[in-house]
Amino acid sequence: VQRGFGSFVVASVIVACGGSPSSAVGEGEHAIINRTASDESQNAVVLLVMIDRGEGGIGQCTGTMLAPNLVLTARHCVSSTQEGIACKADGTPIAGGRISKNKAAADIYVVTGTQRPTRPEANGQGAKLILNDATNLCNNDIALVVLKEPIANVPIMPVRLDGPAVKGELLTAVGWGVTDKTQSPTTRQQRTGIPVTAGAGDSSEQTGPSEFAVGESICSGDSGGPAISETTGAIIGVVSRGGNGTQPTQNPATSCIGTNASNIYTDVSGFKDLILQGYAEAGQDPWIEGGP
Fold this sequence. Notes:
It is a single chain. About 9% of the residues have low confidence. The chain is mainly beta. Strand 5 and strand 6 form a beta hairpin.
């Protein structure tokens, strides 16, 4: 059974556009599993902060700007779901992954830049969620958030909609996941040269018809982050779930390291209609891989 790669901390603070209270930030600078710092050229990748007003908690994920007011991320980042999940190659669930309810769009905030500030000021706030009618995360772990206002001067990325990820092609992962020193890295991280190890419908990797797998690379907090084609620079996938088959210790990175790590991305090309709906709701023209 695999786990989603979002992260959640209990707090009694509320992040709001224009300012927020302080929060603890770790001091580690070296990322786990052969990562390096992500620079400003990848500023389309953003930190998502989700507020649980009922329990006073703050969840964190990664997202990517498809347009100045449109964010691509994982479904389990914007919905309440079961943590454990196992799926069949046909995309149906074996266990876990149930989606119970969706978060309020207005409780989802966007923080831009390469550094995690000690007093994060939200640059954008959700206005509407773009989701399908799935009741389980298997083969459906994808979501879009339309923002109340466009974020000024934010970079955006193109997206692949006309073909799936191909086994062996190389991608770059970018995200805000944990490092070997801290659960809250001060700098956004990347790992390059990650090969796709399994395409759609691979029973050995539990990838559904709209999913693909990679090996050691991502970890907790990277959920919703992009797999970026190293050939075209387009987003080809969204981080869904994974691990190395062991339970995390006090350092959650321990469940992500090693040759046994298997990580699943949602293949964005399998959700062409949903993504085009997101662009339409945002009032933006789509930027498709290879297009203007």
